[in-house]
C-alpha cells in the first residue's frame, strides 16, 4: 500500500455562527469567523489516497484522473463562492474547516478510480487545518 497526496486550492467566503447565539456569544465562540458581513479564506486542500501502484505504470492513480475528480467534485462547487449562501452542502451546517473536510470526503469517496480515499485535510489558514479519515 502506497499513499499519494495531491494539493489543491480554492477561495471561498463564509460565516461561522449559531442562530440561537447572541452576536457576543458568536464572537466569543468563532472569533473573526463570525463577522456578520462575511470574509474569505484561501483554503488549501490535501487529498491523500492509497493503493497498490500499477505494475506497469508504477502509479497508484493517474495525475489527470486525480486532478479532474477533485476539481469537479470538490473545487468547482466551492471556489469563489459563499459557502453559507451558495452551497447546498452547508445548508443548516456551519462551514467550519472540520465540516468542510467531511463534506469534501463525502464528495470524493468512491470517485477516485481504484485508489482508496485515505484522508482529506483542509487548511483554513497556515496555522489551522482539519483532517477527516472517514466514518
Ligand atoms: Ni473564517
Summarize the structure in words.
This protein has 135 residues and is of the alpha+beta class. It contains four helices and five strands. It has helices at 23-30, 63-75, 83-86, 97-108, and strands at residues 2-14, 39-51, 81-82, 116-123, 129-132. The protein has a five-stranded mixed beta sheet. Strand 4 (116-123) and strand 5 form a beta hairpin. The protein is elongated and about 60 Å long. The two termini are 20 Å apart. The model has no long low-confidence stretch (mean pLDDT 97).
Task: Provide key terms for this protein.
single chain; 135 residues; alpha+beta; five-stranded mixed β-sheet; 4 helices; 5 strands; elongated; binds nickel (II) ion
What would a concise description of this structure say?
By secondary structure, the protein is an alpha+beta fold. The chain has helices spanning about 25-30, 65-75, 85, 95-110, and strands at about 1-15, 40-50, 80, 115-125, 130. The two termini are about 20 Å apart.
Ordered list of secondary-structure elements with their pairings:
Blueprint (H helix, E strand, L loop, with lengths): L1 E13 L8 H8 L8 E13 L11 H13 L5 E2 H4 L10 H12 L7 E8 L5 E4 L3
Bound molecules: nickel (II) ion (NI).
Class by alpha and beta content: alpha+beta
Radius of gyration, CA atoms, in whole angstroms:
16 Å
Count of β-strands:
5
- What bound compounds does this protein have? nickel (II) ion
Strand order of the largest sheet: 3-1-2-4-5
**Series of H and E elements:** EHEHEHHEE
Approximate helicity band: 25-40%
Number of helices: 4
Shape: elongated
**Parts with pLDDT < 50 across at least 5 consecutive residues:** none
Amino acid at each position: 500500500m502506497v499513499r499519494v497526496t495531491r494539493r489543491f486550492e480554492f477561495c471561498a467566503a463564509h460565516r461561522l455562527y449559531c442562530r440561537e447565539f447572541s452576536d457576543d456569544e458568536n464572537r466569543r465562540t468563532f472569533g473573526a469567523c463570525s463577522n456578520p458581513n462575511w470574509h474569505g479564506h484561501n483554503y488549501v486542500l490535501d487529498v491523500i489516497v492509497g493503493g497498490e501502484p500499477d505494475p506497469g505504470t508504477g502509479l497508484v492513480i493517474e495525475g489527470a484522473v486525480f486532478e479532474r475528480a477533485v476539481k469537479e467534485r470538490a473545487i468547482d462547487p466551492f471556489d469563489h463562492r459563499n459557502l453559507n449562501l451558495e452551497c447546498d452542502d452547508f445548508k443548516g451546517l456551519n462551514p467550519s474547516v472540520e465540516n468542510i473536510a467531511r463534506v469534501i470526503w463525502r464528495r470524493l469517496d468512491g470517485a477516485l478510480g481504484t485508489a482508496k480515499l485515505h484522508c482529506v485535510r483542509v487548511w483554513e489558514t497556515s496555522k489551522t487545518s482539519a483532517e477527516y479519515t472517514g466514518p
